[in-house]
Specification:
heterotrimer; A alpha+beta (about 160); B alpha+beta (about 800); C alpha+beta (about 290); A: about 160 residues; alpha+beta; Ubiquitin-like (UB roll); DNA polymerase, domain 1; five-stranded mixed beta sheet; 5 helices; 5 strands; B: about 800 residues; Aldehyde Oxidoreductase, domain 3; Aldehyde Oxidoreductase, domain 4; 3 domains; seven-stranded mixed beta sheet; six-stranded mixed beta sheet; globular
Chain lengths: ~160, ~800, ~290
């Protein structure tokens, strides 16, 4: 017997996307395998590592802890949607590059989305706030030091971009 | 002008792709492939009585179900014992799907192929397996007791036993003025990359070729293993390591059962097949490391100079030994670190247990050896009432004694001879950075306000860049693009940048023109793999040598073209020019044109290169002994490893009430010879330290007596978050290696090695009693305090002073 | 790790939700934030046949703060509650406890009512409900019940909610200005479940003397454990001897289980240490509140 499929539509990185999926399909799988937006990574599938973090209606959430059908009508931004409009690296992406904030790069998209949402609310974070902001994401390569540096650098870049 | 690149903190070439989400990791590939899930043993030791898959057959979307009975030919044989050793007298490996017996929870029994992973898991859930369950062997004590056996034909659970001896340690100890005995223990942790393993295979039934991708640290190894298992010519199998989300050792082990099963299924089904390991699978069916228990006896004089060191240890190798006994060999040989005891005896026994196999995890046996050695040094200092740095000082090998022969046989079967290093200078730097000499005053002040703080240090020497060889290929295209490839793989070490820096420097080309590919057997078929901090040393030097021959050829051709002596030429910014006369020049891309006479003109540079356009008609277009193209392939194969070294120091604070442990300061002094890219090296150290802190304070594999892994999730296996890792201050010393053309040593593993030794030392200093077992949790530290109050844990001299 | 199949419904009204839950009976499960439920589904440790997604019901997301009460709807996210200034003023303990709940990204989706309904004895909010005698409104097709904190938790992951019912609201009374509260815990890593946690409340009487003192322990027993130490602390001001005595009394009344992260003895020690710290902190907060009022 074939599994029942449900239609879903959502905005992903500014574009309307839709599909027909079983209710149990995780948002992470929908993004990665149905929409082929493979920048969102899956590191644990139980909500601890943070690699799958995306923005849902502007807030950072774990895409492995959501069903695609539950975000029907929502607005999703993934790491692929965080570059600048001219195609250059977005502030957080650029900061990770400048500060050597990534090594293998697998956890990186989850950090970048988390930090982007964080900086929207805290445009001038202290080092302590930066550390706290990334404390729900696991990285096995960097020891986090350069990621914290990247948060602070990203804030600088964003503020520079705001200047006329 | 070409600016210098070697030694500079060049930003990574791989980043822009990865930060945009354009990386291609294993599970990003093969979107239309069938997917696989495994039924894995829920028991640690059992005999499979019956497998009933009848209920699973009706699952919509199911493609196939396989058990051992379906395997034929070489697939039905045991997996290879990858690294045999004369001391490994009872080496055992498993089958890719369990044959009658299972020997650890997680061992694969049934492979299910379905249209996607959800459905594959549905089918797995419907398969019934009945077992005859045996009492398992869990932990070193249980293995030694041998009341139960992991392998029926290994009657003592011992896979290997090995002794190395330099001088007569036992009588030197007996004749020493002072003796100490220590019993030490380290528990299991694991590499735990954020991306688990994964395999994707496509069978081309027209060409009879297997195209394979694996999240591996050795694509050449996987390729050879798959060719052997599937009985295919090597030329008909190609393997690529795509972007790999971290390795740390677990992905050097190969072939994993899945690495042969997935291509096998792809061939049978004639359809692409993919398996992506999930986190639970990674915990219970990949590899762990670290568990050892050591008994140390040491004899020394009034100055703390070690006359004899006798170490006996037991190593838990898990249920099988596919990767041989590399880990305990490294422990036994690298234990000595920067020290020179007059005599040394080491004996180890490697034991089977009904747990996940043990293969190298970053550091690979060294953290345990360093723990034993450094705990011993601290114990000597305590015994004599000497400062811990002084005891280290008197035992250091001095720079003037280099090269220093430890008279042991290393993991590569070669003599353990340190090539270079300056340990006293490292120590001086370390003490300055941590504020060693001022700490006692700080500690006393802290104590007055009810705080417990302690300082510790730990030293290590790390054999890096082990052979047998790696190769490099460098090619200049007629566009000026420089293609570089090497066979070993990358998991975040920044090879695309570091190797480009080497080529840029050697060849005199802008780094932007250099493009590096790694880990693809189609590009470079001869390679060993990425492990043992060897990539920069091995491939770096091979690539440098290849770049040098390209340079030589370019200068020769340019010499002809410019009618001058090649020795008068230099290459700057991708242009060959006469020294002192930059206008007299020829670009490398033009030399690439000249080096490859063509018949067909398919673009402008080809037009310039047709046999009708260039050449001396009195000579053949390709001169004798020459090859077309401005390219070269070369190999680096060293006589022995090169030895990096380092020292860490830390200050910790322990909560007097809750026994929580906080690291207040962490400093690293590191010497890996010449640095190719200090930014990347520092990043490697940071990551290593975080894993060292994890291994010392947070991570362990909690097996219960039934062999169930109780914490097989990120909820309960406590990998540190940013809030658990201290700020790390790094100092570099650069003692070049005399062994290789670039003077470099490996850096990948270093950061993790002294973690447990260091934090034990610092916690001990804060608490005033002995720490003999790591990792340590607040719960355990609190219990030690109680035991200490009850006289069960000896007080240290510093503890007496504190009273 | 993928969930088993289930039937999914997402009603847009309260009545629709209640009807769906009633129809599903024991096979049904409410999906609110899903931050605890979905990992269980993915690991196939739970496989309800029907998931009733309540996120589309508009009035479920209401957070009402009145002069007397704070009423929390079943889809109010932790983060909203944590960052609400009005809630912080009315029931400071909510924010104090919520700052320990997981990490911000989880708090963005996880719901406070869901967390209470999940009845995990290591959940901070279970202890808050018990300590403050919060009221859980339980609705089913057959009617509505109100259960107070002391009666709500029946065991680990077991509450007074029956199959076919759901918690539609949790209500806390505004704390008196003479009450100070605190939440303290020790966890292995930042953001992990507590090894032991303590919520404490102290009410000051005349002349800033302690009138009532209670604590609620989480990660200590199968349900939150509330202990009244007014008898020990009543009438005192700052006196380390009495804090210690109260803390010892609390520790002597519990017998927490050991697990892979902490032994029974260590947990008992933490109960004592954290009770002392929690009570002292609550006392200080009470003094501060009284001072602000004056």
């Amino acid at each position: 017997m074939s599994e029942k499929h449900i239609d879903v539509s959502m905005t992903v990185n500014g574009f309307p996307r839709s599909g027909s999926v079983p209710a149990r399909r995780l948002l992470s799988d929908f993004l990665r395998h149905d929409l082929q937006l493979t920048g969102t990574h899956v590191g644990c599938e139980h909500g601890v590592c943070g690699a799958c973090t995306v923005l849902l209606n502007g807030k950072a959430v774990r895409s492995c802890l959501l069903f695609a059908v539950s975000v029907d009508g929502g607005e999703i931004v993934t790491v692929e949607g965080l570059a600048n409009q001219d195609g250059s690296l977005g502030p957080v992406q650029q900061a990770f590059h400048e500060c050597h904030g990534l090594q293998c790069g697998f956890c990186t998209p989850g950090f970048i989305t988390t930090i982007s949402a964080f900086l929207d609310e805290h445009p001038n974070p202290t080092e302590g706030q930066a550390r706290e902001a990334i404390a729900g994401n696991l990285c096995r390569c960097t020891g986090y030091q350069n990621i914290i540096k990247s948060v602070l650098r990203a804030a600088e870049i964003r503020n520079e971009m705001m200047q006329p | 002008m070409t600016t210098r690149t070697f030694g500079e903190p060049i930003l990574r070439r791989e980043d822009p792709r990865l930060v945009r989400g354009d990386g291609r990791y294993l599970d990003d590939l093969g979107q239309g492939a069938y997917e696989v899930a495994f039924l894995r043993s829920p028991h640690a030791s059992a005999r499979i009585l019956e497998i009933d898959a009848s209920a699973a057959i009706s699952v919509d979307g199911l493609i196939a179900i396989y058990t051992y009975e379906d395997l034929e030919g070489r697939m039905a044989e045991r997996l290879p014992l990858l690294i045999p050793h004369p001391s490994l007298t009872a080496g055992r490996t498993g089958y890719s799907l369990a044959k009658e017996y299972v020997r650890h929870v997680g061992e694969a029994i049934v492979m299910v192929v379905a249209s996607n992973r959800y459905i594959a898991e549905d089918a797995v859930g419907l398969i019934e397996v009945s077992y005859e369950i045996f009492p398992p062997v869990v932990g070193i004590e249980s293995a030694r007791a041998a009341d139960h056996l992991v392998h029926a034909d290994v009657s003592d659970n011992i896979s290997a036993h090995m002794i190395q001896e330099v001088g007569d340690a036992r009588s030197e100890i007996a004749n020493s003025k002072h003796q100490i005995v220590l019993d030490l223990e380290i528990e299991r942790s694991a590499s735990m990359p954020l991306e688990g393993k994964g395999v994707y295979a496509v069978w081309d039934s027209d060409a009879k070729e297997m195209r394979l991708w694996s999240s591996t640290q050795t694509s050449t190894g996987v390729r050879a293993a798959v060719a052997a298992k599937l009985n295919l010519p090597l030329q008909k199998v190609e393997c690529t390591a795509p972007d790999v989300g971290g390795g740390f050792g677990v992905k050097i082990m190969h072939p994993w059962p899945e690495e042969v099963l997935i291509p096998w299924a792809a061939q049978i089904l004639n359809h692409p097949v993919k398996w992506t390991e999930d986190r639970r699978e990674h915990f219970i069916s990949s590899a762990h490391e670290r568990q050892q228990s050591h008994h140390v006896e040491v004899g020394f004089d009034d100055d703390g100079r070690i006359a004899g060191l006798d170490v006996t240890f037991f190593h838990d190798n898990g249920s099988y030994t596919p990767y041989g006994i590399i880990v305990p060999i490294i422990t036994s040989t690298q234990l000595l670190g920067p020290y020179k005891p007059s005599s040394y005896r080491v004996e180890f026994t490697s034991l089977y247990t009904n747990t996940v196999i043990v293969t190298p995890y970053r550091g690979a046996g060294r953290p345990q050896g360093v723990f034993a050695m450094e705990r011993t040094i601290d114990a000597i200092a305590n015994y004599l009432g000497m400062s811990r740095d002084k005891v280290r000082d008197v035992n250091f090998i001095q720079p003037g004694e280099m090269p220093y022969d430890q008279h042991l046989t290393f993991q590569d079967g070669r003599p353990l001879i340190y090539d270079s290093g300056d340990y006293p200078a490292s120590m001086a730097m370390l003490k300055k950075m941590i504020g060693w000499d001022d700490f006692e005053e700080y500690q006393q002040l802290a104590r007055l306000s009810g705080r417990k703080v302690g300082i510790g240090m730990a030293c290590y020497v790390e054999g890096t860049g082990v052979g047998p060889y790696e190769g490099g290929f460098v090619q200049v295209e007629t566009s000026g693009r420089v293609n570089v490839s090497t066979g070993l793989t990358s998991q975040g070490q920044g090879h695309q940048t570091a190797f480009a820096q080497i080529v840029s420097e050697e060849l005199g080309v802008p780094i932007e023109d250099v493009f590096v590919e790694t880990g693809d057997t189609r590009r470079f078929a001869y390679a060993v793999g990425t492990f043992a901090s060897r990539a920069a040393v091995m491939s770096g030097n091979a690539i440098a040598l290849a770049a040098r021959s390209v340079r030589e050829k370019a200068l020769r051709i340019a010499g002809d073209a410019l009618e001058c002596d090649p020795r008068d030429l230099e290459i700057i910014g991708g242009v060959v020019q006469v020294k002192g006369d930059p206008t007299n020049c020829i670009p490398l891309k033009t030399i690439a044109v000249l080096s490859n006479p063509l018949r067909y003109a398919f673009d402008e540079s080809a037009q310039a290169a047709t046999q009708f356009a260039v050449g001396d008609t009195s000579k053949p277009p390709i001169l004798e002994g020459e090859e077309p193209g401005l390219e070269s392939r070369d190999y680096y194969s060293p006589l022995q490893s090169t030895f990096a070294s380092g020292m860490h120091a830390a200050i910790v604070e322990t909560d007097p009430e809750t026994a929580e442990i906080k690291i207040l300061k962490y400093v690293v002094v590191h010497d890996c010879g010449r640095l190719i890219n200090p930014m990347i090296v520092e990043g490697q150290i940071h990551g290593g330290v975080a894993q060292g802190v994890g291994g010392a304070l947070y991570e362990r594999m909690e097996y219960d007596e039934n062999g169930q892994l109780l914490n097989a999730s990120f909820m309960d296996f406590l990998m540190p978050y940013a809030t658990e890792v201290p700020f790390i201050e790094t100092g570099h010393l650069e003692t070049p290696s005399p062994l290789n053309p670039l003077g470099i040593k490996g850096a990948g593993e270093a950061g993790v090695i002294p973690g447990s030794a260091l934090l034990a030392s610092a916690i001990e200093d804060a608490e005033g009693f002995e720490i003999r077992k790591m990792p340590i949790s607040p719960s355990e530290l609190w219990q030690l305090r109680i035991d200490h109050q009850n006289g069960l844990v000896p007080t240290l001299k510093i503890g007496e002073k504190q009273k | 790790m993928k969930p088993a199949p289930f039937e999914y419904v997402r009603p847009r009204t309260r009545a629709g939700v209640l009807a769906a839950l009633a129809a599903a009976g024991e096979d049904g499960k409410v999906l609110a934030g899903g931050q605890s439920l979905i990992p269980l589904l993915s690991m196939r440790l739970a496989s309800p046949k029907v998931l009733v997604d309540i996120n589309l019901v508009p009035d479920f997301s209401a957070l009402k703060i009145s002069p007397t009460h704070v009423e929390i709807g079943p889809t109010v996210r932790h983060q909203e509650l944590l960052t609400s200034e009005a809630v912080r003023k009315a029931v400071p303990l909510l924010a104090q406890a919520l700052s320990y709940v997981a990490h911000p990204v989880i708090r963005n989706r996880g719901t406070s009512v869901g967390s209470i309904a999940h009845a995990d004895p290591s959940g901070e909010l279970t202890a808050v409900l018990s300590l403050l005698d919060g009221v859980v409104t339980i609705e089913g097709q057959d009617g509505t019940r109100e259960v107070t904190g002391s009666d709500f938790f029946l065991g680990p992951l077991e509450s007074a909610i029956n199959s076919g019912e759901m918690a539609t609201r949790v209500t806390f009374g505004r704390l008196p200005t003479t009450m100070g509260t605190a939440c303290v815990e020790v966890s292995r890593r930042h953001g992990d479940y507590a090894l032991v946690g303590v919520c404490a409340a102290i009410v000051l009487g005349e002349d800033h003397q302690i009138d009532r003192a209670r604590i609620s322990l989480f990660s200590v027993g199968p349900t939150p454990i509330v202990i009244d130490v007014s008898g020990i602390l009543k009438g005192i001001r700052i006196d380390s001897k009495h804090w210690r005595e109260a803390a010892r009394f609390i520790a002597s009344s519990v017998d927490p289980d050991g697990d892979i992260h902490a032994t029974t003895a260590y947990r008992k020690n933490l109960v004592e240490v954290l009770s002392k710290r929690g009570l002292q902190c609550a006392y200080q907060n009470a003094l501060d509140r009284v001072a602000v009022k004056q």
